[in-house]
Model the fold of this input.
Amino acid sequence: AAAAAAAAATNSPSSSSPQKLHDAVHYIKPLQCGGSDEAWVRRHVELPVLSSSSSSLSSFQKGVSYSARTLYRWEMAASPHLASRVERMPVSDDEVIATLSTALSSLVEDNANVGDVKPSILVETAGGVLSPSSASPKNILPRHSRDPSSAAASHGSNTDDDSLSWGWSTQADLYQNLGIPAILVGDGRLGGISCTLSALESLQIRGYDVQGIVVVDDGGGYGNVAALREYASRSTTGAGAGGGSEQRQRNAFENDPNESILSLPPLPPE
Done:
């Protein structure tokens, strides 16, 4: 869905200047398993893309710069923790964060040298908020998950030979210390309200600055976007579990839910 946002951003007016398009949109997929979201972005930016206001096609606006990049890739269409184990291609949390930080710094530096360009940089996770990241024998912190039945894990260590002992973390834990704002991709299907709010709370308890929620294809008549806006509008002060009053931190997206919780049309076909 972030890939769809990257394609849409090159074709949408800037909020600060209604008649001006985004000067630069950069899409980064740190972990890719099977297929290519990078290729999807390139295909739908270079060809007509879906309008943000309808399901009709609108022409790509020339003069908008963009880039799309994948940092680590596995052939197996599976969770990164499984693909990295099966293909014997481990990538640790530290390696992912170091490579991503370098890519982000390079983009910021490059755009700083191009006049008043205002770039948008989108980093798409692999799966959901709590989906696994890639596994590695270097992931040995207490927060890293691994198969407790593996011989190495039972001795409190990770080995290159026993891939089941390779540790992994969730996507939310992997990127937690980067301090970059988050846009949550919600679920427009039946049952999607609960899934979206559970993911939202997982981000909030880790200290993420959630800037907005984008729900893909909310045309099923379930009212998910409306419900999420109502949820975001509730008071920051309320009754706590023990009956007392509790104060919670308001995220940026809650200041104006009608503007920060949005619905996108169905994704174009592959």
Observations:
- The first helix runs from residue 2 to 9.
- Strands lie at 24-33, 49-50, 57-58, 65-74, 119-123, 182-187, 210-216, 237-239, 245-247, 261-264.
- The mean pLDDT is 80.
- The chain has nine helices and ten strands.
